[in-house]
Amino acid sequence: MKSILAVFALFTLLSGTVLGQGNDSPYETSLKVDAPIIAAGMGLSAYGLSLMQDKDGMTELEALSQNKNDVNRFDRFSAGWHSESAKKTSDYPFYGSFAAAPLVMLLNDNARGKAGQVFVLYVETMAVTGAFFTMTNGLIPRDRPLTYSSEVELSDKTTANARNAFYAGHTAAAASATFFAAKIFHDFNPNSAARPYVWAAAAAVPAGVGYLRLRAGKHFLSDNLLGYAMGAAAGILVPQLHKKSNKTNMSLVPISGRDYSGALLTYTF
C-alpha cells in the first residue's frame, strides 16, 4: 500500500503538485523539496521493513525462560496479555483512520479545491511516519507482551515478528493520519466552530487503536505512548512546515545510517 501511495504522490507532484496550490491555500509545496522527502521516506520504510523481517527471533530456550519480572515496572502490568479478538478489532479503527484525510478533502469545500496538494502532504506525512517506525523497529528488538504468556504457542514466540514491540506502528500510523486530517481542517477553516471536535476525534481514534493493541499483547504501554506521540507529531508538523505563514525556514528530512535512524532538522538563512 505504501508503494502505491508513493507512486500516486510522485505522479501528482510531476503532473503539477501545485494542482490546487493557489493563493488561497495555507500551504506551499515544491517538487524539488517534497519529491525527495517522499522518495527518501518510502525508501527508508522499505529498508526498515526488511530489517524487521530479517530480525532474529528468540530461541526456544529464550522463549521458555521469559519472566515478567524482567519487564520494567511501568510496562509490567501487561506482560502476558494476548487477545485475538482485540487484535482483530484494532484493525477497524486502524484502517478507518486512513480515510480521515480523504474525507476532509471530499466533504470540506475549502480543502476540496486543493485536493492534489493535500494528497501530496498526506503521503509525505505517512512516508515520514513509516520511515521512523520501520527503521526504529528494525534496529531495536523488543519482545511483545504476548511472549510472556504460557498460553501462547512456542512457535509464535520465536518468530521475528514477536520481537517487534518497539514501538507501536499501528498506533503511530493511525495518529499520523487522524492528526493530519485535523490539522488540515484546522488550517483551511480558521473560523470553524467544529475545530475542537475535529481535534477530539483525531485524538480518540489512535488512542482506541493503542488500547486494543495493548490488550492484544502486541505492544507495551510505553510502545503505544511513543507511537502515539511520533504519529501525532508527524501529522501536525509536516503540514505546519509547509504553511506559508511558517517563518521558521525549517524543514524535516528523515535520515538513516548503518546503526541509527532519525531526522535532519534544517534551517535556511
Descriptive terms for the model:
269 residues; mainly alpha; two-stranded antiparallel ribbon; 11 helices; 2 strands; 59% helix; 6% strand; disordered N terminus
Question: What can you see in these coordinates?
Answer:
There is one protein chain. By secondary structure, the protein is mainly alpha-helical. It has helices spanning 2-14, 31-54, 60-64, 84-97, 100-107, 109-112, 115-139, 154-157, 169-188, 195-215, 221-241, and strands at residues 250-257, 260-267. The chain has a two-stranded antiparallel ribbon. α1 packs antiparallel against α7. The longest helix is centred in the middle third of the chain and has 25 residues, at 115-139. The protein is elongated. Residues 1-9 and 11-20 have low confidence and may be disordered.
